[in-house]
Amino acid sequence: MSTPSSSGPDRDAVRAVLDRARAEGRTALTAPEGKALADAYGIPVPGEALATSADEAVARAVELGLPVVAKIVSPDILHKTDAGGVAVGLDSPRAVQEAYERIVAAARRYDPAARIDGVQIQRMVPSGTEVLIGAATDPTFGKIAVFGLGGILVEVLKDAAFRLAPLSRADALEQIGSLRAAEVLDGVRGGEAVDREALADLLVSLSELVTDFPEIAEADLNPVFASASGAMAADVRFVLDFDPPEPPKRFGREEIQSAMERMFRPRSIAVVGASNEAGKIGNSVMRNIVDGGFAGEVYPVNPKADEVYGRRAYASVGDIPGGIDVAVFAIPAQFVAGALEEVGAKGAAGAVLIPSGFAETGRQDLQDEVLAVARRHGVRLLGPNIYGYYYTPEKLSATFCTPYDVAGGTALTSQSGGIGMAILGFSRSTGTGVSAIVGVGNKADIDEDDLLTFFGSDDNTRAVAMHLEDLKDGRAFVEAAREVVPRKPVVVLKAGRTSAGAKAAGSHTGALAGDDKVYDDILRQAGVVRAPGLRELMEYGRALPVLPAPKGENVVIITGAGGSGVLLSDAVVDNGMSLYEIPPDLDEAFRAFIPPFGAAGNPVDITGGEPPSTYEKTIRLGLEDPRVHALVLGYWHTIVTPPMVFAELVADVVRAARAEGIDKPVVASLSGDTEVEAASTHLFEHGVAAYPYTTEMPVQVLGAKYRWARAAGLL
Amino acid sequence: MSTPSSSGPDRDAVRAVLDRARAEGRTALTAPEGKALADAYGIPVPGEALATSADEAVARAVELGLPVVAKIVSPDILHKTDAGGVAVGLDSPRAVQEAYERIVAAARRYDPAARIDGVQIQRMVPSGTEVLIGAATDPTFGKIAVFGLGGILVEVLKDAAFRLAPLSRADALEQIGSLRAAEVLDGVRGGEAVDREALADLLVSLSELVTDFPEIAEADLNPVFASASGAMAADVRFVLDFDPPEPPKRFGREEIQSAMERMFRPRSIAVVGASNEAGKIGNSVMRNIVDGGFAGEVYPVNPKADEVYGRRAYASVGDIPGGIDVAVFAIPAQFVAGALEEVGAKGAAGAVLIPSGFAETGRQDLQDEVLAVARRHGVRLLGPNIYGYYYTPEKLSATFCTPYDVAGGTALTSQSGGIGMAILGFSRSTGTGVSAIVGVGNKADIDEDDLLTFFGSDDNTRAVAMHLEDLKDGRAFVEAAREVVPRKPVVVLKAGRTSAGAKAAGSHTGALAGDDKVYDDILRQAGVVRAPGLRELMEYGRALPVLPAPKGENVVIITGAGGSGVLLSDAVVDNGMSLYEIPPDLDEAFRAFIPPFGAAGNPVDITGGEPPSTYEKTIRLGLEDPRVHALVLGYWHTIVTPPMVFAELVADVVRAARAEGIDKPVVASLSGDTEVEAASTHLFEHGVAAYPYTTEMPVQVLGAKYRWARAAGLL
């Protein structure tokens, strides 16, 4: 069982097989062709040979290694078993010889007219744990590697994992270990652990094979039998596609970066369709850009006005003096292509296409036409069919919605206008500090990976949160995410997760939503934090820039309410974190501050009715002890320590600690009457992610920060 | 394989075995004793017999049915296989005879000094799908029945289901079908479907056995081999406990009802420890009861005051003229027992023990003393260690917290004071209509089942939502829930889900049963809706009384934002509902109201930018068509249909439909700027469960209503 790494794959052998198939107009390979591909990439499959005499059968069997299986080879006998043409478990030369004679005789009896080419001798696959190893071509991500446990587990419970191909060995081992039932591979009920390295070899080799030969659309090693001494594919299947869909256009990182820089920090903006008539989109856009405080040049374009919203208007884009960086379109769809020619001639970096009436209403043709114009001029398109975009560091509200002015570290994007409005309302209501809110709509051109590339290098952005229904180029997104994640968290809400949801996505944008598990696995592989719902997308977006990154896994709960402590503990475990087992000396130190009946260990239950000083001392201790990496606070509203008193003391203690260089994430759950709402807001403004009436959300956002920190390699 | 139903179980046989074990001080049964129990309850186990000669072995084998297994029986040979003392697959009289002789000879060679009692002949268990059937004694619920798929599935994936024992046949079939991998029982990969009825027989029989004989602490049929023709337990194991913990005291339904009636609708209340001193609990309680508007008599008890908060004070409870229904205690723990004697003498129905300082601080003795006094007088105790209780229909705020006056249909209880305060704050902030908020604290006496009994019959309560950490008597709770659920929803947040202790267990079944899944399964079996977190407990409590019960499973989404439609579809599936496949005539009817590019099917995507009339017509159509059973609305904030316009039109359409007797649940997700908050509140006040900035919560509360409606037998 040589692996490709020892001698390198035999690409010529594969090329020859595929060329023959293409020449013959086939999209499937025969079993021997499949074996040839496997052999070329060092994928262990049972050796086999054709024998035309009993002596030859014995010789081949000994070469291949006993035991073997013997099968009649005849173009006229379809059902080999019915014809007595199969013998298994042949474990001696004598048994092989007898089987050869018996099989041939039986076949002649079964059909005296049958042509008999001989007997195939195949090495028996050693028994072992059944797994499935495969590769497929995902419409979003391209070549992906698939690993699943065989039999019931993959068939009934769909226990399979997906990763981008090609895979590193470490990726492959991680993929194998990610199955829910991976424990099976360690041997259960007295069985031996299988050789995971051998399985990883197969996964890596197959992923390289499909990467080297993109015309291999699907590859299926199923079942693979894995044991302590190796792994062998008992069956191999390949499906070819010599006419794959064209991959989406790729821009270089530098190209993307420079276009996005000009779009987000423009010196001049043209508003095509700017209007003085209230209620018109071109009016709202002008008003928001000007009233929002944008400091660059703003050129309204309107052939029927001399002036729009106090700025001199131009009859056409061509009339604008000098160049423009961005043109915001607020004219009907059918006029966009024409005006875009002028925008292109002006050397603009980007066009923001607010109008609808393109692909989403069946006018793919109009959208294609506009894209062609843009490509000719090197103009990047945002939209069409969007609300526009906000970038608070430049006081830029190029949108027909209301302006937004709470600057901060969160960049949010949405594929849907409705979701964009929810993001706007939520951000305003919670005072979320935002760097950008961007609608991407039909994504004729600019996709999430372009935006991610910009936000990744934008010092004003400290976390990126994206709502998406599909990705035009999943692989480009993964590459961008891998580049950004080590520096800042990327949160994604992928809509259309369930099959019902995926169907709705199909009818909405014509997007093809893939199997959700593929997205889930590959986004996680890229280090993306996936939000389970819209509310979490926004809450993670709000909290992640506020919380410092944890430097270790030791989470401690300090609570005034035992009941909150129990729920917070549930939430810590639910969110993939672990409660620190507090060592005796630290436990004693906590105990010195709390009543004798306060609970030992973690949660630290300071009990209800304690004065502010008890909260203060225990929280300070948790912050100052270097073994503690994150704090979850449970507050209980009492007369002795009212909500705002608690909020102020926590803010002070945290600020003091940060001044001393102690920068740990602190989250809080506030239980109490309505005063806890203002207290939570105060805490949030002072760097503590605090929430009233919920024990889940503070721990969820901390869990999101942890998932990011792990993906970023900080832990 | 006779089932117990054909002849009835042989209880005498079981009694004899158990009596012998008890007399011998054993807590485990031998294999023959286990077989005797199985035989007595018609549980099929392999027949077996002892043979002392080869001829006898043949005769026994033929009687039992071939094939058989033969095993040496010798008190001196522990490792039968090592001694060559086992033969399997004996399928003819000749094989049995030879095996007998071979085994005995081998055993003699192995240990010439060994005493040989003979050879055990046991029928071979027919092969089949491996399952586990068991019973255990749960500390909360008592006897429970366990069903799991055998081998890897139960060991690695813990795929097991739990139900209260004894079980009906229907319960057993439902339990079997509830496994995640139940599909395996229908035959996968070409296998036959197993006989589920036979498995149900075993489950029912075992559950009856452990119910009839409570000293059987654990029972384990593992593995059971199930096939198309039946099921047989290959191994049987019992663990006994002749000294089980005492069951909690039970009250009759009538007793509970009459005590609770007097506690929630008292004519007179004594406040023991009432005080004029601001900041004291006894002062807050008095003030809240009086200021809250309670119309009954209020007697402050304070030996040092003539008057408290404008009411004549009494030196002791004994001095109060006439009887009292409830005494609220606001005195230190050590004085409670003494005062309770007087309260008992006054014939009070209940005592509300606000003070802490009992079991939660290690003073179980004080708590036991108080309970003993209460039992002697027939006084029921709420608490100790609670914030008190609210019952808005009587304007009763017997608590030291702030009063609550938004009357409505939701009764909420909490085991923790901190959680109680969160409930109070949330309710006030959202304007939730509440019938009661009750703290149960240490639960020295009154448990959730008592409260549930009252709320079940209370016309002011339309839904019950309970936070609990444990149940003193899980079986009593299930009985109360079963009684209440057909009339109104019961929601439970069970805290401490992940901290389920790993208790030492004597069997595989016992180990499986130490899990949160037991609560989950048995609460669901009782028809309880489980809330995944604190926020959901409160949101379900708020929304369930507002929503009418659905009359069928056909959910339709009507949305102005396609993006919301996708997320709402995801949420519908996530929450166990199904999107109605809209038939062509109804689809056409919807299409008549929406733009040509609006999406067909479900979601009904009316597209953004539509006027109020489009929302109105489509929503009315959804309400009026009898095939549609529930509506999920997705609103998108636009200038054309602003939030409050949408809210008012939906409220009007729903009101008009309800006036015509069309009473369907309607929920809404509002995407938009902050005005959607007021719009959501307006909708909630008009019978539509509406939420801003979330596509998940409206669907979650609808899902909770559906889960209840199914449990209540309405669907």
Automatic annotation (TrEMBL), chains A, B:
PROSITE patterns associated with the record: ATP_GRASP
Keyword Metal-binding: no
Entry keyword annotation includes Amino-acid biosynthesis: no
SUPFAM superfamilies in UniProt: Glutathione synthetase ATP-binding domain-like, NAD(P)-binding Rossmann-fold domains, Succinyl-CoA synthetase domains
Classification via InterPro entries: ATP-grasp (IPR011761), ATP_grasp_subdomain_1 (IPR013815), CoA-bd (IPR003781), Ligase_CoA_dom (IPR043938), NAD(P)-bd_dom_sf (IPR036291), Succ_CoA_lig_flav_dom (IPR032875), Succinyl-CoA_synth-like (IPR016102)
Record's keyword terms, sorted: ATP-binding, Ligase, Nucleotide-binding
PANTHER family, alphabetized: COA BINDING DOMAIN CONTAINING PROTEIN (PTHR42793), PEPTIDYL-LYSINE N-ACETYLTRANSFERASE PATZ (PTHR42793:SF1)
Entry protein name: Acetate--CoA ligase family protein
Organism per entry: Nocardiopsis endophytica
